[in-house]
Amino acid sequence: MKIANFDTHDFERKYLAEAAKHYGHAITYIGERLSFKTAGLAEGHPVVCAFVNDSVDEQVLRTLKDLGVRLIALRSAGFNNVDLPVAAELGLPVVRVPEYSPYAVAEHAVALILALNRKISKGQFRVKQGNFSLSGLLGFDLHGKTVGVVGTGKIGSAFARIMSGFGCRVLAMDSLKKPELITDFGVKYVDMERLLRESDIISLHVPLTPKTRHLINSRAFELMRPGVMLINTGRGALIETRALIRALKTHHVGYAGLDAYEEEENVFFQDLSEEVLQDDLLARLLMFPNVLITAHQGFLTEEALLAIAETTMANVSEFEQGKALTNEIIAEEHWKDARAKVA
């Protein structure tokens, strides 16, 4: 089938091309993000493949439907950028990649923790300038610290296992408990308030839904320990950015490691090095020496890209062959599941 692949990046073309060839599909690579302005580029393609920051709202969906598009294939696990009720109304099935490499994202979360704690960026910058002083580079032992894991799906579970290996006490919040985490790794499931109060490090691994939007807000920050480290490799809007900035300014939050940002669709995956950054909140975050931001690269491993490409093309093949869509997103079911995870 002919696939219009929006928001295409150099790092993924090789993997997409190989998978498309294997399944007999033809890809048109489109660098622009999917939006109402660019949706017309999908003309002549029965399948549109969208990425995390593409807009698949009502306007876009109705335009795509009029152009003859019959399937929306997301090459991501998250689907908060899709108006699922409208897609269902139009008879446009939406499929996704529910999992690729949970280790990729979990390990990136750990990398943020280590880099923040041991001040790797600051130390490297100094050494490159010939400054070998250790002043201001003090960190702490992870061993014995309490780590709170918000959401123990595949990524959260992988993260919890890694932190257990560091000798951390691991608390978890999820209504769907994983018995193996409890018995094999000593993870203790608690409610959200207790997790916030007792954790030295908090890492977010839940999907973005209407209920989880701004899950970490002013009230949540008030409950946290002074000097807490907050890690987000999920979706940016899990954290209320203005509240985070206030907590950083008062030193209540001691460290923040972010691989996602609330308004990232206007910035991430683009080279803006020759431009003036227009996002004032992001610019403010970048000024804090105890904040480390990466541009949604947690998924960026060879294994993950292989899995994303393979699953995406397999999803298209199922549709082409009239088979049941293994990874179709059913709006009501998924919102129910997402609500249960934070209940």
Describe this structure in words.
The chain has 343 residues and is α/β, with parallel strands linked by helices. It folds into two domains: 2-100 and 301-341, Rossmann fold (3-Layer(aba) Sandwich), CATH 3.40.50.720; 102-293, Rossmann fold (3-Layer(aba) Sandwich). The chain has 13 helices and twelve strands. It has helices spanning 10-23, 58-66, 84-90, 102-117, 120-128, 154-165, 179-185, 192-198, 218-223, 241-249, 280-287, 302-320, 331-341; strands at residues 2-5, 26-29, 47-50, 71-74, 94-95, 146-150, 169-173, 188-189, 201-204, 228-232, 253-258, 291-293. The strands form two sheets. A seven-stranded parallel β-sheet has the order 8-7-6-9-10-11-12, with helices on both faces. Helix 1 (10-23) runs parallel beside helix 12. The longest helix has 19 residues, at 302-320. The two termini are 41 Å apart.
Q: How would you sum up this structure in a few lines?
A:
The chain has 343 residues and is α/β, with parallel strands linked by helices. Helices cover 39% and strands 14% of the residues. It has a 7-stranded parallel β-sheet with strand order 8-7-6-9-10-11-12, with helices on both faces. It has a 5-stranded parallel β-sheet with strand order 2-1-3-4-5, with helices on one face.
